[in-house]
Amino acid sequence: MSYLIKSRLALGIILFTALIFTACGTANPEASSEVPTSETPEVSETAEKPQLVATLFPQYDFVREIAGDLVEVSLLLPPGVESHSYEPTPKDIAGITEADAFLYTGEVMEPWATKIIGNLDGKSVKIVDLSQGITLLASTHNEEGHEGEEDAHEDEEEGEAAHEEGAYDPHIWLDPNNAKIMVSTLLETLIEIEPENEAVFRENAEAYLEELTALDLAFKDLFAKSETQTIYYGGHFVFGYFAKAYGLTTVSPYDGFSPDAEPTPKRIADLIDAMDQAKFKVIYYEELVDPKIARLVSQETGAEMVLLHGAHNLSKEELESGTRYLELMLQNLEKLKLGMGYRE
What we know:
alpha/beta, Rossmann fold, 2 domains, five-stranded mixed beta sheet, four-stranded parallel beta sheet, 12 helices, 44% helix
């Protein structure tokens, strides 16, 4: 037998013997061989997972990103339902009273939430207003139909009046930096509800915040390389925070955010004229609502109709396929390139 073969045989015998002694010396043979490290936080599984109810898709998705399957989160809005016209049913309200936390965007977006919160008196449900920590913007319109946004807190009296009239823009999540504030609020909520999984929640939230930062940078790069900074929108314009974050001008015929609002003929004519003069003929429209104004503008000007998703809610197909907030926003980024004259 050669020296090489003998050496390999001897090594095999030594390893086999070591394995036998290791197995014999194990105190609990049923114990997992995985040892938690600082890179892989230990997960604590509870008999019954915490139950959270989210009014809109963004906070529903943010909870999924932070907590994964460690909690049960449900979306109050049925798939395909336009969020502004939604009213909770008695069954919806009864379900919320049994939850550990109720997550809503704020009373401007969900005025009906006040009624739900009133029914939660004496219950152990944690109520989380996700607009906390975010400076709300008051919606303004000029005569040409350009949407503008002003800091609602610059003038306290005007701010109070805007609040009474429902004039705050409630679509806070469409600025990725506001989305990061919402994620941080949800992180603290989850830690309070399920403290034994704090390490997991923090690790997931940190990774997701990095993705949101990357999204913000991608939008900045897009607009830095675009010929125009104007968005032509045929729907109820919901991208006020987004436009303010990136210094954009927006043109919409609608005054306010109600899905029942109708633009005047003059505003529609102004939008058609503006589209006629635009270098890049793309008219954007909103999800889950008949895009009748965008369709009219397209017919009159030849502009291409393109969906710009406001991420309030999802269609049944989107929900079943596990669509993410980040996915919708990255789709928006690609679609904005069409109307902004993006240059590589």
